[in-house]
Amino acid sequence: VRTSLIWLIAAIIVCVGVTTGSVRGQSDQPGQAPADYTALVRTSCTGCHNDRLKTGGLSLQHLDLANVPEHAEVWEKVARKLRSGEMPPSTVRVRPDAKVAAAMVTYLETTLDRAAAAQPNPGRAPVHRLNRAEYSNAVRDLLAVDVRPGEWLPVDDSGYGFDNIAAVLSTSPTLLDRYMSAGRKISRLAVGDLAIKPAEEIYDAKRDPNKPTRNEQLNEELPFDSRAGMTVEHYFPVDAEYVFKIRFAGVQAAGEETEIDPYQVRIPVKAGLHTIGVTAPRENLKPEHDAPPSGPGAAAGGRGGPAQTQVPSPVDLRLSGARVKRFDVRATNPDVTKLIVGGPYNPTGHGNTPSRRAIFVCQPKAPAQETACARTILTKLAHRAFRRPVTGDDVEPLLAFYQKARATGDFENGIQSAIEAMLVAPEFLFRIEKDPVGADATSAHRVSDIELASRLSFFLWSTIPDTELLDLAERGKLKDPATLDRQVRRMLDDPRADALVSNFAGQWLHLRNVETVKPDPVLLPFDEALRQAFLTETSLFVDSIFREDRSLLDLLSADYTFVNQRLAEHYGIPRVYGSQFRRVTITDPNRRGLLGQGSVLTVTSYPNRTSVVQRGKWILENLLGTPPPPPPPDVPELKAAPHGKLLSMREQMQVHRSNPTCAACHGRMDPIGFALENYDAVGRWRRQDAGAPIDASGTLPDGTEFDGPSGLNQLLLTKYRDDFVRTATEKLLTYALGRGVEYYDLPTIRAITAESARDHYRISSLILAIIKSTPFQMRRASES
Amino acid sequence: MNNFNRTIPRRTFLRGVGATLALPFLDSMRPAASALTPAPPPGPPVRLGYVYTPNGIIGACDKSPRPFMWTPKTAGANFEFSPTMKGLEPFRDQLNVFSGLAQVTGRALGDGPGDHARATATFLTGVHPYKTGGADFKLGISADQIAARELGKYTQLSSLEIGLETQPLAGNCDSGYTCAYMSMSWRGPTSPLPAEINPRAVFERLFGDGDSTDPKTRMTRLESQKSVLDYVTGSLSRLQMKVGNGDKRKLEEYLEAVRDIERRIQLAEEQNATLELPHIERPSAIPDDYLQYTKLMLDMQVVAWQTDMTRVASFMLGRDGSNRAYREIGISDGHHSISHHQGDQEKVDKLIKIDELHVSMFAYLLDKLKNTPDGDGNLLDHSLVLFGSSISESNIHTHDDLPIVLAGSANGQLKGNRHLAYSKETPLNNLFLNMFDLAGIPHVDGFGDSTGRLANL
């Protein structure tokens, strides 16, 4: 109730501040007079936080509570610590009166909110380099070449938990090297360069060594009646012949995998993106064979002599769904390891690809028209690539590349060369916002409509603006609130908004780490199919919350999820058959929401066991925004129990907490982690650990008791709901702005959460509130 | 030269399976002096390598549960190899073991936890990292980069940074330290050089992405790259006039990258006439198996030195604080999680096995270098390769008594077969200064926390 009140007050003040711009004087401050708070600070804080001790690097001795905005950063910290109860610590004997402390938090926050409304500080992120995901998407949207070229670049550094932080994204010679290389490859694919030399691309199958493949369809790209194999998306640059070679795991010799002779076929393929599939028919669909004749010489195909006679097994090569070749593979259970695509050979034409349709908006009929057409093409491309109206100054240098290459090649070569250069242009690779002419240093200004268009598209789509958005911006219409609202909703409905799930949620919830976790395949039932299933489940789940515009709280409480047969068996959900994912209702309250999903449970575990500490820490850090400080370096040894027996995890942790050094943090972390102990290191439900029954009950330092995953979920949705919403908002704002959240952003965060609370924390309300907020709409001018 | 590529099983070589050398070093591979490059000092160049092993080594520190697993029992010449370093004994004559060295700037010094980030950051810098999870990180130049500034004048790439483990794809890196500190090579206080973990990217960095290694094709490609860089420079200078200070710094960074590559192209053009590039197969994916992967990447370092593409390399065998499970040797626990062994015998045994694995990978590198002819000798004769960890006892994160080995003779200047014990907390940076001298780098007074050169080297 208290916190809602704060929001209400904050919201009113922010509204007043924004609409009328009025600044209220010091006279009508809400709540009690500062004198009470000064007394509180003196009795409960300055014992440690004084000029002499400066505990935690902080002194409150001479700070004036009548002028809070002067030390906004300090008071924000005080408000947060006081509200969460972290301060004053239990060692302080004189306990502050709870009501006075609560009122003081309100006083501090409302005062700070009011000051922020009167004099907004939107902060400032420097020039923003596109990260790998944004680069891939921008290339896809600009040239219709969907080859994820960002993956050819070095990994981006991240800060504040995200890899789109402007100040952290740097440029090195290695990166530029890769940009140039990528620019060349992309431009040649895009125009369909007939001079591309044949090369082999090798794709490795994601497989589980030493495990038999499951007798089921691998994924929905492959036919229903197929089993195992692999699929890849491959971009064929021109109409030409290509060679497909399939490699299989062969005879196991001394642990070394050897390859049997490649099976290959050479066929003409139309230019563009195709899905290549390699798969075998389902086992029960295989034709029956007569028993092979026995005796020496009878088994022509046997590699290991007569005893190893094998019946050939069919393996199909498929191109965009259609079977192009069936191989008879001499193996009982052919296990595909690699697919090699070679080519192009004997090109017959550029092909009619989406890329060429996007690039060649005109075709010169006569040599005299060529330059004009090239200019048209390059002007249009530069416009999208640079995300702003372009002038002759932008196009002429590109046209020079065209002319130089045209002199020794054809029209296509010319355009390709210009595109290659455009892809390393600073204004393509960087998001650059300019201060208005004559802006006072460090004053705040509204960003231009054109800059806003890029802010929107990189936030919601992780890519460049589309023509509709850019067009509205160029006509100065985007700042209109109704238009902005409509555009945001349109963008959220667009498939490109998937980027929010993969890039924002993928990093916030550490889902990206599912790609690299390595649970012990011997101790735990983990394989590549399960890894993929974990990723798909949580992606579909988060996507459904965003797409259906549900409440943020549904991330924890939703009574549904998405499973296929593999995952359903893993979770113990009956009657789910086949490899395709479907929405199922969850009847077991313990499985509800993110905390019941294999992805989250696995990334917070060790390879061979669960970690109560990592799970507790993950929740404190990512859901509650109160990360525990890391352990001291000289961690004392856990003493063995008097009876000398092996301690269970819980016994160990109890020893842990009896040590006051550990207890301060583990007192919060461990009970939270223990609540999830019924899930093993890959998220399977269990009742016992190492033979002992699991006790998933816990008590927080303040005496709150709870039990098991559903008890924890309940706690997060009630007592800690506001912390969860605030944390999610902070993370989303960090991602939206591409910079860390600073103390001067906290009034904004309070306003956003208040706004979204009125709409039951609906995702769209949260996103709209962020987009309409001061730091998203405005920018501080540079210090000159 | 024409049948060069038929006679030698290069694919085997690059895969790290071949036991012997693939590419003979040809003196013609060495670039001559040119307009751009100063005349190189006489004699074969000295190469400098820095190999990092994560999460400490059992038995390096007197607080270890198994003392002498690493540190040899006696100091001086003809010392007895300790159990963990047994695999290095074949190289005894060209190898020295150091004890007593430290990177004390890796200690908390009031900054609280985060020893893995600090260990990595300080290993080659000797500079205490400024604690931040944000963008205002600050460290200092690293030893390999000081060397690269000088040795890089003669080669197309000033240095190579190789790693085997990416930073976590999501989340923080270590206890409030930004992931930038998980790089051990730093060009300057604010410029980390993240290690490249993709073998294919390392290959392309060395030999380019052209369709062919044929000199004429390469020249055409270099020409076109030059005009692209001119275009970028022009665009940048137009932009610089329109943006604020913080933005200028970011664009300046891009401009520096442009200049670096321009210089490299110029060198490549000058050297192209004499430089015969080996015809080797591009690696494809990252091998699943740790041993295969490590060997492949070490092979790249060797081929980079052999072709004199660069003379400086840093190599991280793993990320400090990493939880990699070394299943190849039957260990399914996360490395970091067992490194806090709390004296548990079973965990200590597993850690020793991991230490031995890392040592064996270093031995593989030394073997490759020794078997690669170079001028009148082999690459090991003409290099200095340091192996070590920036933590000694992982359970309690000690930053002194570091396990350090230096292999190679630096053209016969450095004697081997010695265990050199220095007084406790002697800065590791002091050894780096000796290495600079041995590599013919003009006198460096000091850097980081160095206090002078090591005596009796």
Radius of gyration of chain A from the CA trace?
31 Å
How would you sum up the global shape of chain B?
A: globular
In the predicted model, the low-confidence regions of chain B spanning at least 5 consecutive residues are 1-32
Described by strand count, sense and barrel closure, the largest sheet of chain A is: 5 strands, antiparallel
Count of individual helical segments of chain B: 11
Helix content of chain A: 40-55%
Main sheet attributes: strand count, strand direction, barrel closure of chain B: 8 strands, mixed
Alpha-beta content class of chain B: alpha/beta
Rg of chain B computed from alpha carbons, rounded to a whole number of angstroms: 22 Å
Strand-residue proportion of chain B: 5-15%
How does the overall form of chain A come out from the CA principal axes? Answer: flat
Total strands of chain A? 19
- SS class of chain A: alpha+beta
Write the layout of secondary structure elements.
The complex is a heterodimer of chains A (about 775) and B (about 450).
Chain A: H1 2-20, H2 34-44, H3 72-84, H4 98-118, E1 128-129, H5 132-143, H6 173-191, E2 199-204, E3 226-236, E4 239-253, E5 256-259, E6 263-269, E7 272-281, E8 313-319, E9 322-329, E10 336-349, H7 354-359, H8 370-386, H9 392-408, H10 411-422, H11 426-429, E11 430-431, E12 444-446, H12 449-460, H13 467-474, H14 481-493, H15 498-508, H16 528-547, H17 554-557, E13 560-563, H18 565-571, E14 582-585, H19 598-603, H20 612-622, H21 649-658, H22 660-674, E15 688-689, E16 692-693, E17 697-699, E18 705-707, H23 708-717, H24 721-737, H25 746-757, H26 763-771, H27 774-777, E19 778-780
Antiparallel strand pairs in A: 1-11, 2-10, 3-7, 4-5, 4-6, 4-10, 7-8, 8-9, 12-19, 13-14, 15-16, 17-18
Chain B: H1 4-7, H2 10-15, E1 47-52, E2 76-77, E3 95-102, H3 115-123, H4 143-151, E4 160-163, E5 185-188, E6 191-193, H5 199-207, H6 215-240, H7 245-271, H8 290-306, E7 312-316, H9 335-339, H10 345-370, E8 373-374, E9 377-378, E10 383-388, E11 404-407, E12 418-427, H11 428-438
Parallel strand pairs in B: 1-7, 1-10, 3-12, 4-7
Antiparallel strand pairs in B: 2-12, 3-11, 5-6, 8-9, 10-11
